[in-house]
Write a structure and sequence with these properties.
Distance between the termini: 63 Å
Number of domains: 1
Structural class: mainly alpha
Radius of gyration: 21 Å
Largest sheet: none
Strand content: under 5%
Order of helices and strands: HHHHHHHHHH
Number of helices: 10
Shape: globular
Helix content: over 70%
Amino acid sequence: MAKVPYAQNKSIEQTSVYRSAVETILKNEQETLVAIRSNAPDATFKRLGLVDSMLNLASNYIIIDGVVQSVLKLKNEDSLNEARKALYKSIIYLEEIVSNYIDAPYSDYEAQLVQIDYVSPAERYLLIRKMGLTIQLLKNAYGDNTKWKWTFVEIEGRYATVAKNIMNLKDVMINSDFASEHYEPTIRHLALIKKLLSQAADRYREKYELSTSRIDDFKLGIMYLAALRRISILTGDQEEAVTTKKKLDIWKVKLATDTEKQEKMKNEL
């Protein structure tokens, strides 16, 4: 029997703990999903737990890739792809709780957030920060020249959406008061939301310009800008609302022009 090369054996040994953690998380996920599908009274609580556990799953896969790279000097694409899938599941589980509405009045999804009233502003913010960190770690692991470059536009866009939708916007002004116990996480969460929405808009515009030329991508960029303007108005940031409105108007003119050009080209074929 051929001996396993030392470096490969070392890699297997060092990743065994993380692979064991992966198996445990996946088993717990299936058990939790069975409970949710049986209409457990704490289904939302369990689903929120899945959001966090899928981030932990993604992190374990990223660590496995890191160990393999350090020992074998090879990128472990299988682990990274599993991390990406786990990250998607985390976002999807959170969308199921808080909705995936990009630009909509808070009243459209407010009823869904009643189910997580027990989750404090600080806990919501920390979960969103953890999700953002996991996304960044995965991007770093893939590297700049990955074929998944444009896939991260969607991931980060959906991340921006749930980051916004998990916040209780009805109480945002009260919680933004300096005297509120929720002041710091609320202010930090709001700043993050605005940053993420702006980035999502720019990245979809970039994807449209440099990769797909799909009008739908441009429209999504505009939707994220509109969501940013909605948040700015809600929080009383008139300067940002005006600046965003100007950018929106310019983009809408560009969208109309490009749509007309593409339709003309189709008709000429």
